[in-house]
């Protein structure tokens, strides 16, 4: 197999050295060069033609966002952002994902051997996924949202919408929420994201949506027109309390290596809500959420998986489809209507067959 060619762009010589050592330890990856700023990076991209770029958020001469915007407009390629675990780092990183970055990793904890090993595994996995991710030219930001959807035929007034995602999910979830109507059923969301970033993510969704979006604090009564985002270091669950549904935060161990886990959320919604729920599993790396989506389908809920063509990485939704967990496989643009009772036709995905769903 041909190795994944990586160019590292970071103004810190130490970080460049550490990232080079961590990535080259994987036999499938070759670091073909490093650059201390975007101007040097621009020239090395031309001569080295890397498959993946790791890009620092804050750099001298030209900041990472300006460089990324230019890159995605003129020469789109997979980019993994290297971010700091700060409020400023969260805001800039979410903007980078909006501009077209595939994913991000936080700055390595230098000097902590155990932490560095865990970081290395995450870094390598995200670079590998970035190499096969779908990227396209951007004109400086996300496409304009369509009109807010008008609800048509909800099955019950007690319905709950559950959404799970990972790689590419911050933008996919934004695209869904920004066209949901302000009176839609309550939405619960599990997105793989660090604890330092989840509050900023919820605030960003709130700015782009007619819904009231917040980071869940637990024990909230689910209300129509509201969306609840799992904190980056807790599992989000839905429980039934009398005639109401409530959020619950769980500090248990990671599930499928993730906390929050989509499986944990979907499993809880299957138990608490049964057929009064609808779920969508969106773009993401790995298999988290596939079994939870199946549990929801078996409990009578309607289940949707994002199709391969519109996913940045078709790991999680692809696993759900292969497991037979999805009632519908839809492009991202058709997911919102499916969540609130729309009657958009199901678009097929090529070459996938399951026991419960046959897709041409």
TrEMBL record:
Residues 5-122 form the Response regulatory domain. The keyword Hydrolase applies. The keyword Membrane does not apply. SUPFAM superfamilies: CheY-like, Methylesterase CheB, C-terminal domain. Coiled coil: none annotated. Residues 154-340 form the CheB-type methylesterase domain. Phosphorylated by CheA. Phosphorylation of the N-terminal regulatory domain activates the methylesterase activity. It comes from the Bacteria. It is found in: Cytoplasm. Its main location: cytoplasm. Involved in chemotaxis. Part of a chemotaxis signal transduction system that modulates chemotaxis in response to various stimuli. Catalyzes the demethylation of specific methylglutamate residues introduced into the chemoreceptors (methyl-accepting chemotaxis proteins or MCP) by CheR. Also mediates the irreversible deamidation of specific glutamine residues to glutamic acid. It catalyses: [protein]-L-glutamate 5-O-methyl ester + H2O = L-glutamyl-[protein] + methanol + H(+); L-glutaminyl-[protein] + H2O = L-glutamyl-[protein] + NH4(+). InterPro entries: CheB-like, CheB_C, CheY-like_superfamily, Sig_transdc_resp-reg_Me-estase, Sig_transdc_resp-reg_receiver. The active site is at 166, 192, 288. PANTHER family: PROTEIN-GLUTAMATE METHYLESTERASE/PROTEIN-GLUTAMINE GLUTAMINASE, PROTEIN-GLUTAMATE METHYLESTERASE_PROTEIN-GLUTAMINE GLUTAMINASE. Keywords: Chemotaxis, Cytoplasm, Hydrolase, Phosphoprotein. This is Protein-glutamate methylesterase/protein-glutamine glutaminase. Its EC number is 3.1.1.61, 3.5.1.44. It comes from Spectribacter hydrogenoxidans. GO terms for molecular function: protein-glutamate methylesterase activity. The modification 4-aspartylphosphate is found at residue 56. The gene is cheB. Pfam families: CheB_methylest, Response_reg. Contains a C-terminal catalytic domain, and an N-terminal region which modulates catalytic activity. Belongs to the CheB family. NCBIfam families: PRK00742.1, PRK12555.1.
